[in-house]
């Protein structure tokens, strides 16, 4: 892990350097384009002025053009220098990444294989647990349905018995029936 974090730091430093070079490259390119635009503007302005005025301005513009050309050459050399530095950095970066990948490819393969085997075992266990839970839910649902049917049947029987008791009370036969039941119990006990 220490080697990987060290390589990671090197890669971050190289990436930051590349970003800085790219920004500098873009800035130099913009300056170069601006100088070319100024040069074309000066050329068009010279063509529109009278000859006497133009000759005076030509000398000043020639000096300015030489300065711009020199600046453009400096900028081109800086761009080429940055480009070569960027190419050098990218070569080292590619070489570094390639060596890291080669070193760790076997380790990653073993790690992924062992992880996938463990994951498959866990997945199989989860599937078994789900199947057991489904069976338990099905059994519970069947027992629940049976309990509800039994409860409904008992409630119906209770209601019918209550109606019978109520009818027999109103007819007066309940007390006679109870007396006969008590007499029968007494007779069977003796």
Properties at a glance:
0% strand; 3 helices; mainly alpha
Report what the structure shows:
- The protein is mainly alpha-helical.
- Helices cover 97% and strands 0% of the residues.
- It is built from three helices and no strands.
- α1 packs across α2.
- The chain is elongated.
- The two termini are 96 Å apart.
- 0% of the residues are buried.
Topology summary:
Elements: H1 2-48, H2 51-171, H3 173-189
Helix pairs in contact: 1-2
In short:
The chain has 190 residues and is mainly α. The chain contains three helices and no strands. It is elongated and about 150 Å long.
The biggest beta sheet is recorded as: none
> What's the mean pLDDT score?
77
Low-confidence stretches: none
Order of helices and strands: HHH
Give the helix proportion (percent range).
over 70%
| N→C terminal distance | 96 Å
């Amino acid at each position: 892990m220490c080697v990987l974090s060290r390589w990671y730091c090197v890669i971050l430093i190289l990436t930051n350097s590349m970003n800085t070079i790219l920004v500098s490259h873009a800035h130099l390119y913009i300056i170069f384009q601006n100088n070319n635009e100024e040069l074309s503007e000066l050329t068009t302005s010279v063509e529109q002025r009278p000859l006497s005025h133009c000759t005076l301005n030509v000398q000043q513009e020639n000096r300015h053009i030489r300065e711009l050309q020199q600046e453009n050459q400096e900028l081109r050399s800086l761009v080429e220098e940055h480009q070569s530095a960027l190419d050098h950095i990218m070569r080292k970066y590619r070489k570094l990444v390639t060596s890291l990948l080669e070193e760790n490819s076997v380790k990653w393969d073993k790690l992924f294989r062992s992880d996938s085997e463990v994951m498959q075992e866990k997945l199989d266990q989860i599937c078994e647990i789900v199947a057991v839970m489904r069976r338990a839910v099905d059994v519970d649902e069947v027992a629940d349905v049976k309990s509800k049917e039994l409860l409904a049947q008992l409630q119906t029987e209770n209601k019918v018995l209550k109606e019978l008791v109520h009818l027999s009370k109103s007819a007066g036969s309940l007390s006679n029936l109870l007396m006969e039941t008590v007499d029968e119990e007494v007779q069977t006990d003796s």
